[in-house]
């Protein structure tokens, strides 16, 4: 099952590469290797795919490029490998979005799954008490929002399939790994048990309840269900100001449930 993201970007799952049709811009792929993320795994010495995932940051329609730059808005896309990292699923290294100079705040990220199945794992902080902890299961067409300041990672839940997603984030994005690395990962480790993912508590954190849930509609942010989030930008250019100016939405973040 796949999902059309609203503009002509294509992906080759075999070599984990994006290609861009005429009128679409995009960079060469960045590669994240197993050695890059070992510090956040339950078993840092595990075997697995050398290239865990590839990234194309800053993709979109040529006609939107100047407007996206002026808004400090950026669309990125990722392809995750098949397979396992030892007994753990292929996933990203846990991190918090660093404070962006353009808005003086940590910033949110809005995911849209295109292919495969994912879990977006998130917790309020990377401190000993992680606060609220969620694992949001997502399939093609599902949208998941991670709030500013929350530690999170992205998980490919099916070892037999690649997983592909796109995401809105701020243009001057950055990553803060310090808290997650200090604690050897996030508050729970995803582990395969009979081909199903279970979550094992990371004892470096206080054991708060993990809520596993399906995605919801983000009506408070005017996100339309079933319409590609890039298409929603084309139709309503100001819609994603909550990505680039998160402080204007503090009241919503304070009570946020993904």
Automatic annotation (TrEMBL):
One of its GO terms (molecular function) is glucose-6-phosphate isomerase activity. GO terms for biological process: gluconeogenesis; glycolytic process. InterPro entries: G6P_isomerase_prok, RmlC-like_jellyroll, RmlC_Cupin_sf. Its EC number is 5.3.1.9. The keyword Isomerase applies. Residues 48-191 form the Glucose-6-phosphate isomerase prokaryote domain. It catalyses: alpha-D-glucose 6-phosphate = beta-D-fructose 6-phosphate. Keywords: Gluconeogenesis, Glycolysis, Isomerase. Pathway: Carbohydrate degradation; glycolysis; D-glyceraldehyde 3-phosphate and glycerone phosphate from D-glucose: step 2/4. SUPFAM superfamilies: RmlC-like cupins. It comes from the Bacteria. One of its GO terms (cellular component) is cytoplasm. Belongs to the archaeal-type GPI family. This is glucose-6-phosphate isomerase.
């Amino acid at each position: 099952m796949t999902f059309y993201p609203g503009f002509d970007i294509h992906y080759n799952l075999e070599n984990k590469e994006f290609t861009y049709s005429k009128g679409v811009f995009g960079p060469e792929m960045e590669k994240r290797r197993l050695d890059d993320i070992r510090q956040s795994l339950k078993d840092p010495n595990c075997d697995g795919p050398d290239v865990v995932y590839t990234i194309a940051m800053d993709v979109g329609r040529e006609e939107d490029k100047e407007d996206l730059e002026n808004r400090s808005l950026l669309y990125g896309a990722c392809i995750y490998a098949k397979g396992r990292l030892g007994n753990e699923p292929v996933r990203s290294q846990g991190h918090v979005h660093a404070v962006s100079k353009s808005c003086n705040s940590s910033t949110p990220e809005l995911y849209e799954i295109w292919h495969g199945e994912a879990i977006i794992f998130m917790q309020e902080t990377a401190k000993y008490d992680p606060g609220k902890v969620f694992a949001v299961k997502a399939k093609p067409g599902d949208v998941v929002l991670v709030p500013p300041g929350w530690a999170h990672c992205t998980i490919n839940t099916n070892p037999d399939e690649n997983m592909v997603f796109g995401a809105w984030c701020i243009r001057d994005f950055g990553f803060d790994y310090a808290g997650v690395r200090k604690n050897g990962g996030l508050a729970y480790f995803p582990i395969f048990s009979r081909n199903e993912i279970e979550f094992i508590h990371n004892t470096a954190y206080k054991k708060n309840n993990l809520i596993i849930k399906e995605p919801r509609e983000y009506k408070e942010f005017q996100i339309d269900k079933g319409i590609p989030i890039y298409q929603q930008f084309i139709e309503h250019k100001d819609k994603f100001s909550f990505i680039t100016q998160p402080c204007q939405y503090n009241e919503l973040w304070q009570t946020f449930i993904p």
